[in-house]
Amino acid sequence: MNTTFNGPLNQITNSEQLGVLNEYFAKFKIGTLLNQSEITKTKGASPLAIFTALFNLAFCNKNLYQGIVRNKEIAVDKDAAYNFLNTPTFNWRRFTFHLSRRIYFIIRGLLDDSSEEVLILDDSTYSRNRSKKVELLSRVFDHTNMKFIKGFRMLTLGWSDGNSFLGLDFALLSSAEKKNRYNEINSEIDKRTCGYHRRQEAVTKSTAHLVPMVKRALAMGVQARYVVMDNWFSMPSAIASLREHIQVICMLRDHPKWYYEYQGKKLRLSDLYRKLKKKRGRAKVKAHAVVSLPNGKRAKIVFVPCNTNRGWLALLSTDWALPNEEIIRLYGKRWDIEVFFKMCKQHLKLVKEVQIRNYDGLIAHTSLVFARYNLLSLYQRQCMDQRSFGDLFRACNDEMTNLSFMVSLERIMRLALVKIRRLFDFTERMVQEMLDQVMGQALKYFGFSNRPKEFLGV
Q1: Strand 226-229 versus strand 138-142 pairing type
Q2: Are the C-beta atoms of 260 and 291 separated by less than 8 Å?
Q3: Beta strands in 257-321 (DSSP E)
Q4: pLDDT tens, 284-333?
């Protein structure tokens, strides 16, 4: 066995990435993608070295301060890292699209039925409750806890085939109303930069982003036939706008000002339900109707039983010829984005990893989290791994610890062999053979013998 270790820690040199994801960094040419996204060197280490160091923080159980600012061994300077995150000319949306597009086409090659693909739109809170001076910090409503918090809303567009999920695009939204914003846009930002355009997006209503996000995803080659949404985005105007580009499946709200035309009458959702004949017993579908939307297009509304006070939920599909059971099944894929939000916050350190006041820094950090999730999603899919995403993350986390230990052991052995070479007249080949034997026994002793070599960096 010819044992070779790639340097001290995988954060220290430009060429080293996280063990199992190492081949993905090379395969997708991360350095080239950064360059194509106008993410170039400004000071200090190269963009790839800084990206790698930041990417690996979550797998080292360290935040930005612990992993870079206080880490004296790392080759990435703290000023270079902060400058990398806070530069307004770096096009992080383009980088996310380039990377997710390459991953998408790999996964799509594994699909037997392309009709399983859906786009998913949803938002999640980006809480900064303890902050005061964060750029564009605002008062936003948390739909989960039904209360207002300080922070942002992360409007996200994802792709799913029911097995894998990819984060394709996001908009980090402040409040569209000035009275709800604690801080405004930094007046020193150059209005020609993409950073300024992202700030303009942040103070725009979320519904204005739905169509542009879907159009960008379709333009990059995604073949999804449906976009799936929760009831927070199900206003008739939004449905009509999206329908010009893609079929829509969403849950509906019984809003007093939203009407659907049925048998020549404009009815509110609850009135429509009362007018329909219901199925008895434990039917999966209580009732359904083909209605006309305000733009004149037809759609199907399916009522399903639930445990709420009113006893039903309503799903709408602009593809009115789609069977009821298929509408319900496709809408069920929306759950994948909820898992995505949980994994990003719980395991991949979204929000918690950095305490940056600059809006560009928040965009860069969120883009890094998307890259982590998408690469792990591809790894899980290609390995046909039955573990949950959390288990997969913990395995990668353990790998970081194991690699660090083995690298340290290898360092000690090399220092010892240098002393032996000075005391005895050993050739380089004899020293290497001794190192191979010792490291080989150490790998077996500590339980690494059954792992693939690339998993160990060997």
Answers
A1: unpaired
A2: yes
A3: 259-262, 265-268, 287-292, 298-305, 312-317
A4: 899 999 999 988 899 999 999 988 778 899 999 999 999 999 999 999 99
